[in-house]
Each structure stands twice: as structure tokens, then as C-alpha cells.
Amino acid sequence: MSKIYPRASARRDLVEHFVYLAENAGLDTAERFLANAEVSFNVLAGKPMIGAPLTLENPLLADLRKWAVKDFENYLIFYLPCPDGVSIVRVLHGARDWWGLLGIEIE
Question: Which of 4, 10, 90, 100 is 20–30 Å from 81 (CA)?
Fold first, then answer.
């Protein structure tokens, strides 16, 4: 079975999004977000190459890819494929400066 390795930054992101959604959209929406994030992580773990590849300056993130949370397309999962699954690096809202947060080169 494929594994999911969430980094501390990704866990913090999920908590922040949960709190925001609970306060602004209701607890049901926040709980659905977490459930759909987990479903999305499992999909990525099983098919780690399906996300869009990104070009980054940081060589440690050279294979970084992105994928949207199921039914929450504005929330983006940034992850690295691993031999046995995926490492979840961040989960960021698409309106944030995720390019800057991740060090992506914009031409």
C-alpha cells in the first residue's frame, strides 16, 4: 500500500484551513475539506505522477508537483513523489503567493 508522508508545514496548513473554513463557511464544510484532502492524498499516493510538475530554484524540491484538493479546487496540494507514495510539502490556497512561498521561478 502506498504511503503518505505529511510534512509539519502541510499539517499546519491543514489546521489553518480547517479553522478558517469552520469560522467562515461552517464546521460541516471544514470537516468535508479535511476528508477530501485525505482522499486527494490517497489518490496521489497511488498515482504520484498525476500532478502538474513545477520548476523550482530549490534543488531539494526539484520534483515538486501540485494537485487540487477534491471539490476544493482553490486549495492546492504541493507534494513530492516517493518510491512508496508521496511526501505532502504544503497545502495552500491558490490566492496566496504560493510561487513566492515555494521559490518558483516566474518568467
Answer: 100
